[in-house]
Every structure is written in structure tokens, then in C-alpha cells.
Amino acid sequence: MDTTIWIILLLLLLLFLEFPVAIALALAGGIGLYMIGGWGLAGSFLSTAFHEETASYVLIAIPMFVLMSQYLAHSGMARDIVYSGEQWLQKVRGGLGVACVLSSAMLAAVIGTSTAATATMSSAIYPTMKEVGYKVG
Prior knowledge:
The chain has helices spanning 3-16, 21-54, 62-75, 77-88, 95-111, 114-132. It has 137 residues and is mainly alpha-helical.
């Protein structure tokens, strides 16, 4: 049988045995590299792959967005955003949720990335929404 078929079967077996997807992919990929090129290929690829994927300039900003969300949450600004949005949209069903989405959109326009804005605002506004009465789940 071809090496590719063996690796795909190994991956499917690991997934069938309920291994986490990341571990199943890593094991199948590592064993596939070994089967194709031996320890030299597998070792050289795996030694540089982790560094190349984690040493990205994009990932440098993540701790700063986490810090910004903590500032928003602990300074009371997130609570003020929630309460002002609640006052503006109190006649709209789910108005507080809509206000949170709009504030995330405004923050995304300012900082340039919607993913970071969503992460920032969700961690900052979640405790306040829970405090106001939104149910979890």
C-alpha cells in the first residue's frame, strides 16, 4: 500500500478512537514525515515548524488586546457602555445584546481587526451582561 493511504488510515483510526483532532493530526503528520524521509526529514521539519508558526508578528498583539479588555472591565468603561446601550435600545428586544455588537463593531473599526475586537469586548462586557440579568448559555 502507498504511504499516503497508511497515513490517512492512521488518522482515521486515531479520530475513531476519539483522540483530540490536533494530536491525531500531529501524530499522523509526524509518522508520515518519518515514513517518507526518515528521522532527518521529520526532525528538521518539526524543529522549524513550531518556531515558524508561533513566532508570528500577528501573535504579538494578543496580550495587548487581553490587557485592554481587562482595563475596560476593571475601569468600569465596559459597564458604562452596556448601560448606555441599554438606555438607547431599551425598547428593542435584545437591545443590550445589539448594543454590545455595535460597540464591538466600533472597536473593530478603530483597531482594524474584528477578531481582536470581539475577543476584547466579549471578555470585558460578559460580566456586566451577566450582572444585568442575561442568562448564560
